[in-house]
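stage 2 :: seqdesign
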């Protein structure tokens, strides 16, 4: 299966980056991984990303702050959030308008892949 979409994954957990990179590449996606929100924002990632998967809790800038920074740049990338924390953080729903998805770790990969596909179809 070949998908021309570029998926960026931002997470401070190297094992998550490796596993999502492997999973998404096996479905034909091009994958870029970043170990922090700053690394993503300081790269050309925002301009080259069709769908973003981001951890919420990260040192420095959290995923919600990165989402807000992208919105301030007028970069509206379909975003799926993943987290190791149970339940939504209190500030999440007040600050994130339209996330494509929210997944607690460990997450169901079929549900994640289906969510990515829906997000990419809406982006076209």
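stage 2 :: out
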């Amino acid at each position: 299966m070949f998908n021309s979409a570029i998926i960026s994954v931002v997470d401070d957990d190297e094992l998550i980056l490796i596993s999502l990179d492997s999973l998404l590449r096996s479905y034909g996606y091009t994958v870029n991984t970043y170990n922090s929100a700053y690394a993503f924002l300081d790269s050309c990632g925002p301009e080259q990303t069709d769908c973003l998967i981001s951890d919420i809790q990260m040192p420095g800038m959290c995923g919600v702050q990165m989402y807000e920074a992208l919105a301030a740049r007028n970069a509206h990338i379909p975003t799926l959030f993943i987290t190791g924390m149970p339940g939504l953080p209190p500030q999440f729903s007040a600050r994130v308008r339209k996330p494509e998805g929210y997944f607690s770790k460990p997450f169901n990969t079929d549900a994640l892949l289906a969510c990515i596909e829906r997000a990419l179809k809406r982006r076209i």
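stage 3 :: structure notes
- The beta strands are 6-10, 30-34, 51-55, 79-83, 101-104.
- Residues 6-123 form a domain with the Rossmann fold fold (CATH 3.40.50.2300).
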